[in-house]
Amino acid sequence: MDSTRQAKTDTHPYCISRYYAQRILTREVRIGNTAVGGENPIRIQSMTTPPTQDIQATVKQSLALAEAGCEIIRITAPNKKAAQALGPIAQALKDAHCHVPLVADIHFLPSAAMEAAKHVDKVRINPGNYADNKKFAVKEYTDSAYAQELERLHEVFTPIVLRCKELGRAMRIGTNHGSLSDRIMNRYGDTPHGMVESALEFIRIAESHNYHDICLSLKASNPKVMIEAYRLAVSKMHTHGMNYPLHLGVTEAGDGEDARIKSAIGIGTLLNDGIGDTIRVSLTEDPVHEIPVAQALAQKAMKLWSKNPQKQDTPLSTNPDQIDPYSFTRNLTQPIELNSLKDSSNQTATYAIGATHPPRIVIKAHHPLEDYATLIQTICKHQIQAKENKLEGLLLEINTPQDLEHFTQLHQALETIIPFFVLDLSPEIDLEHLENAELPKTPNALILTQTLDKTDAHYATQLLKFCRDHQQLFALNAQAQDIENSIGPILSKMGTDNLILTTQANSESAQPFIHPTGHYRALLQTAKTHFPNTPIWIRNTHSNSIAPEDYFSDRLLESSILTGNLLCDGIGDLISIENEPNLEQAIPLAYNILQGARARITKTEFVACPSCGRTLFDLQSVTQLIRAKTDHLKGVTIAIMGCIVNGPGEMADADFGYVGGAPDKINLYIGKTCVEYNVPADQALDRLIDLIKQESKWVDPV
User: Fold this and answer.
1) 641 with 650: CB under 8 angstroms?
2) How far apart are alpha carbons 509 and 513 in whole angstroms?
3) CATH architecture observed for domain 336-596
4) Contact indicator for 533, 332 with CB cutoff of 8 Å
5) Which of 73-82, 127-136, 663-672 is modeled with the greatest confidence?
6) What are the domain boundaries of the chain?
7) Residues 25 and 312 sit within 8 Å (Cβ to Cβ)
8) pLDDT in tens, 220-256
9) In this structure, are residues 120 and 169 in contact, taking their beta carbons and an 8 Å threshold?
10) Quick one: 3-307 is in which CATH superfamily?
């Protein structure tokens, strides 16, 4: 049987509910004086970046991390000398009255692991690199040959298991998508299933020695892959009677806004599922910057979980929705043609949603409509200055009949530069007001929406009829249960032409408390009954947030969690940013979330590791330099890796790679193939650009 297909058919449920967040109870594991899993809070982790043998620098950064709130600190041990340096590092931290647990990061050398275990509280083992091969060799393994490889693995891995058991050390078995062994790759492929099986092989060896102080991680740079891997791991562990705590992270996320978005998508999605005991937000920045982002994600999850308290005997869900959580497939919806506009080169650009069209973006205007002149100036300035990623849909609140008059003036000024408009009607606006208004006559250039409940079924039919009569679109905004029980049976008789579906979270008093993502999943389920294949609009609003705060970085996390979660489940044809008042921040945020979820690519994708003591060049400055020169290459993925540990493998999705090969020497890759070795660092960026041109993927910046 095909292994990918087997991963789908042999799975059990992976969470307690797809609609509300209830934490999955895991085994408690102690890491020094800190416990993870069980009923303990989510623990925050990070990793030091200086060379480990620079003891003073490593201690200094460890103290800074602890001061910032880091609860577990990982330090690389690439060789035995670095592992020996962990002893004086641990002692110096104790002398400074810092008792944060230390973790040794081990990849290739069992001897380094054996030494490191003497000095730290936990040892992280990467199954793909530890006692296994990674040469991208293609080889068919018979069952007997595969069994022999597992016996060899048992022999090589057993000593560190026994050492950790003897010394009372914990262990993290940390699989990376980019460093699966050739043996795993040839049997399971470069898949979440392969990641899970790689980890389970090592867990079984540890359990054969009655060793259970284990944490598990399954990281990838692609949030979709990472989400699927963790879900599958929980399902597989449940099948085998395992409940090890999980450490969450999106590896090689990069820096800046993009990295925070990708981390929020991956980590936030799993925390919504009730999965996760420790987290790290990997940034190609000073690791201290990781801590507040991780803390914010953890606090939101703990607040969600507190609404549906953890129970020892709560079974995993046996009644999931119709989404396959282990394999991405976009929810199929019917296409809706929106307006067409002339672009700067006088070419006609057609806008559409649904089917295979990429999700479109809508941004809410926070100016009062009576001040439409200021709003016109602001939008014209952006649309003229923006080379790419222009505003596509503008959402306006209509609170009074006068607002409809103001909209008429605004529309006349902007109709040639804004493809479509969305009017969010307050309860005070009714059909009579709409009939009397001078609304645009351009077909499908206007979407009307209004929040409705179970008493509004017949009114909904009138709104839909009005929109059809005037060649406009109607976005039904209602709770799934109101659609299921009242609106759906009546409105569905009219068919789905000109119809879009959306929803808003209800009050917190309902039990169990359904999270915002759960409301959209429920909406999709009832849509399959009453409005099949109808496009779904994801609205990022205050009410669709978990624990909103009034600053941009929090709105970034909230929007990424909701929209990214749904997009990675294949849900979403239209997204709106309504919780960010600054237009110049809201528009890039919308596009960056789509990029982070791999739902719509509008710029270069960067896969960049967060740096550690193995890094062979200044990763932060080099990443910024490469980004500055190549950020305009839409659809191109560039991997920037400090060393070879995850380099070629984590570049599975990358077109080009820039990897540290030796001090001040760079290896350049096309895909997984190294095409230039030991390029001097001061020439490497120019040579990278030459390779991009050679592959006909270069365009000159505008």
Assistant:
1) yes
2) 7
3) Alpha-Beta Barrel (3.20)
4) yes
5) 73-82
6) 3-307, 336-596, 605-694
7) yes
8) 999 999 999 999 999 999 999 999 999 999 998 888 9
9) yes
10) Dihydropteroate synthase-like (3.20.20.20)
